[in-house]
Amino acid sequence: MTMAVDAAGHMDRIYRWQVGFYDLTRKYYLLGRDQLISDLRPPEGGSILEVGCGTGRNLIRAARAYPHARLFGFDISDVMLGEARVAVERAGLTSRIHLAKADAASFDPQALFGESAFDRVFCSYTLSMIPPWRETIDRALAATAPAGRLHIVDFGEQDGLPGWFGRALRAWLRSFSVEPRSELRGVLAIAAQDEGRTVKAADLWRGYAVSTIVGPRAGA
User: Fold this and answer.
1) Cβ contact 210:204 at 8 Å
2) Where does the record place the Methyltransferase domain (predicted)?
3) Most exposed: 14, 53, 111, 132, by fewest CB within 10 Å?
4) Structural domain boundaries of the chain?
5) pLDDT of residue 1
6) Which CATH code of 2.60.40.420, 3.40.50.1400, 3.40.30.10, 3.40.50.150 fits the domain covering 2-217?
7) Does pTM surpass 0.70?
8) Residue 110, exposed/middle/buried by CB under 10 A (0-12, 13-18, 19+)?
9) Which of 5-14, 61-70, 102-111 has the lowest mean pLDDT?
């Protein structure tokens, strides 16, 4: 519990001063988020969960893209959740988007939302911010229905970009406690195999980001 409280306080300290203009600035470098949302394509009346929903920006876009879906999201930061609640209310989507506070590495979807699993689960630039990111992947997969999919987009290794760019980007990201996960593909491949699922990964913009989809369980 202490670790979760420390993590929540750390996130609040990072975002308290920038939450008002967070979405305006992030659109220039959190690339691939809208493509992820376009790829979700939940079944009619299906459920979508965002792990680390931040300001609610992605959930609002997903709600508009899929008007018959049920949407859920959580974050560990009170600052971000406060912004998300305001944004969801402003968008007129409080009846469709359900928000809660939770730790991504240990969340219980049944306790939070009364849902045991979701048709689509997604992580948008969250794993690079969460120190126990492997545990977060395990929890996200556990919350993905057998016939569902887990979608992830996050920073890649930038191996197709000039070296100076990658070094500068990583140094800048570290100032926000963001660290690209070089082992992400391998960890996802093992986790998917253990779950009997397929995994498909693609580099975006010469490795600037990586997009991954973990598919349904075999036979689901």
Assistant:
1) yes
2) 48-148
3) 111
4) 2-217
5) 46
6) 3.40.50.150
7) yes
8) exposed
9) 5-14
